[in-house]
Amino acid sequence: MESSRGRVGHSVCDARRSRSCRVSACSLQELLSEGKQKLDLDKLDEEKPSVVLEEDGTIVDDEDYFLCQPKNTMFMILRSDEEWVAVNVVAPKLELSLGAQRDDAADSLYSEDQLDSAEHSSNWKPLARQFRENLARIITMSESELQALIKAPPAELAKELKETLKGAERLQNTLQHSLNKREEERQTKMLLEQYLKAEAPVNDDSEDAKGTDQMDCSNANSNRKCLHPHIIGVLEKKDSPEFSLSNEELQEVIKVDEAGLATDAHCSIQKAKNTKYECKKELEKRLSKMKALEELSIHSKKIRMTPQQI
Fold first, then answer.
1. Which residues form a coiled coil (predicted)?
2. 124-186 CATH
3. What is the pLDDT of residues 148-171, one digit of tens each?
């Protein structure tokens, strides 16, 4: 059944809410087909996947019911072995085995959904104004800032950016792609670390050393200012936290000495040292990208200039 109202804009996400995209569809089948392709789910098992409402898990298998849904409804695509889970439900920690690392790594996202929507998500308009001034901000923003812009109503975002509705939707798709890339980097890094850890010889003294490190730094720099609670939450709960932080937040982590960072994040000195190193490396990578974009922008302006202007 085709809709007489034409294509309507909706959002689609996967079962773990780690990926989402914008889809324009006039039928349930078209939404499912385009959603699978954009979320890279087109290689699902042969059994037909199901569609539910992301908000409450209501099954959407009727064309008429689908057409009754308002514009910008968020749908979720589920595999035959997946079930809808509320966004605030924390998945239990699973034992990691090399054969099931990828699935388990994705399962850990449940406990981190609320972190990504914290603080920055309530105020996306200042972020939109930053984008209007410099599109390269996509590189420097934190994951929560990117998500805030992705979840913003497209019409309001277009107005804030002084863009067309299609332009705003294209921007949201670009932001989602950037967010997906960070998540892919995180999972790849996490799987590699788990593999190396499994291959490494067991050191019985490692846990004792970790506890000693924490005790040694517990009273260090007692007069200094602690990191912002949002940064601490990311450091404590996120795997590869450097991918979740903005440039400004990365700089804050780098400025703290290792003992202070270990105290704030409730971790060992060695872990604090590794975290600082990874944050510095991520910041340098982003700044390098920013510089390349700025040079490209300057070069493009020169090409467009007339001989008289030069």
1. 158-188
2. 1.10.1490
3. 888 888 888 888 888 888 888 888
